[in-house]
Amino acid sequence: MEFTDALLQWYDSHKRALPWRGAGDAYAVLVSEIMLQQTRAAAVIPYYGRFMTELPTVEALAACDEERLLKLWEGLGYYSRARNLKKCAQAVAEEYGGRFPRTAEQLQKLPGIGPYTAGAIASIAFGRPEPAVDGNVLRVMARLSEDDGNVTDQRVRDRWTAFLRGRMGDRPGDLNQAFMDLGSLVCLPKGPLCDSCPLASFCGARAHGTQALYPNRGEKKAKRQEDLTVFAVRSGDSFLIRRRPKTGLLSGLYELPNRQGHLSRTEIGEALTELGVRPLGAWEIVRRQHVFTHVIWSMQVVRLNAELVEVPGYAWYSGSEPVPEAFLKCLR
């Protein structure tokens, strides 16, 4: 028996019940796969349901106002994914009449679609024998073969893509999803559940007890830290916000007032005066941290209640503005 046959047998009995599975719809596959990038499936499920209810077709997404789109994406992070998703939808609607191209090669010409997403759509929606090689696949294959190639190296990814392309069989979509489930449920980055693995008899790392050595990701660069003082200014159920610039980190989203560095209490008082808010009672300081891909925000959060007055350059949150998680956690 091939390892792919064993994996499919396991998948038929253990596959996760996920709302985007079974439809065979390229748009549903696209939305789910973009949401799943750098986000756990359990966290994606409520976002996916809400998103597809409001934007059920590729044409609806193509026509969606950006601020509404970002509000639907609020909490998922990596907001460039949402913007690229809309660009992709616009290209499908305008250039392909709302019908997705069927091959991985054509799909990769669309904005925001790389080899992995193209492979997932081509195989799951159209039955094409295309692998979808992501971190789960690379981890599984590295352990099976005890391959110490650096999985962040594109040449290593290309090698495994070519290897798997010849082994997709007649259920390519199911095989790709089986890899996804195995990596998420069993062949975990830390503490893999080897006794429950359908590929245990094929796995070199299990045989030699070397699971922790794979995959090789090379040396990780340390993230730089940025210190911020963030002002969580509330008035009743609302809070003070302003829109961030159109370029850079969290571009176009809304932020709480903030200053670089961890201000002293005297500097905090001066900053509040400069903002023009009218505090009601004392303010308190709490600490929060938010981790981005390349930077860590160490946030000193100043919490206070204030009068609902106009503050130049700012607005009071109405409920429709997209506020990223980095700032929402300062309010909790």
CATH architecture of the largest domain: Orthogonal Bundle
Average pLDDT number: 93
Shape estimate:
globular
Radius of gyration, whole Å? 23 Å
What does this structure look like?
The protein is an alpha+beta fold. It has 2 domains: 211 residues, Hypothetical protein, domain 2 (Endonuclease III, domain 1), CATH 1.10.340.30; 108 residues, Nucleoside Triphosphate Pyrophosphohydrolase. The protein is 43% helix and 13% strand. Strands 1, 2, 3, 4, 5, 6 and 7 form a 7-stranded mixed sheet that branches. The longest helix has 16 residues. The termini are far apart.
Sequence-ordered SSE layout with sheet pairings:
Blueprint: H1 3-14, H2 26-36, H3 41-54, H4 58-63, H5 66-73, H6 80-95, H7 104-107, H8 115-126, H9 135-145, H10 154-165, H11 172-185, H12 204-208, E1 224-235, E2 238-243, E3 254-255, E4 258-260, H13 265-275, E5 284-291, E6 295-305, E7 315-316, H14 325-331
Helix pairs in contact: 1-11, 2-3, 2-8, 8-11, 9-11
Concise structural overview:
The chain is an alpha+beta fold. The chain is 43% helix and 13% strand.
Features of the shown structure:
single chain, 332 residues, alpha+beta, Endonuclease III, domain 1, Nucleoside Triphosphate Pyrophosphohydrolase, 2 domains, 7 strands
